[in-house]
Structure to design on (85 residues):
C-alpha cells in the first residue's frame, strides 16, 4: 500500500541552505525504492508517495537531517479550522 508523507529538512539545514549550502532532499532519498516526489521544494520540504514497506527505510535514511510525517498532518498546519478527524 502506498503512503503519502511529507519530508521536511531540519531547521539547521534550512538555515544552512539560506546561507548558500545545498542540501537537497531528493539527493538524500534517491536510493529509496518506490519513492516518488509528488511536489515541493527539495531544499525545504517535499510531499512523497512511497510503498509502505519502505517507510522505515526512509525514516532511517534521513534521521537527524529531516522530519518525516503523514501528509495530512502537515496540510493542517496553519489552518484555523479544526480537522474533522
Amino acid at each position: 500500500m502506498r503512503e503519502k508523507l511529507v519530508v521536511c529538512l531540519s531547521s539547521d539545514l534550512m538555515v544552512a541552505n539560506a546561507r548558500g549550502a545545498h542540501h537537497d532532499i531528493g539527493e538524500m532519498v534517491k536510493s529509496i525504492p518506490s519513492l516518488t516526489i509528488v511536489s515541493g521544494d527539495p531544499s525545504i520540504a517535499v510531499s512523497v508517495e512511497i510503498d509502505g514497506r519502505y517507510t522505515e527505510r526512509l525514516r532511517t535514511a534521513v534521521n537527524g537531517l529531516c522530519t518525516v510525517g503523514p501528509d495530512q498532518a502537515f496540510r493542517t498546519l496553519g489552518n484555523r479550522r479544526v480537522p474533522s478527524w
Q: What stands out?
A: Strands lie at 2-9, 36-41, 45-51, 66-70.
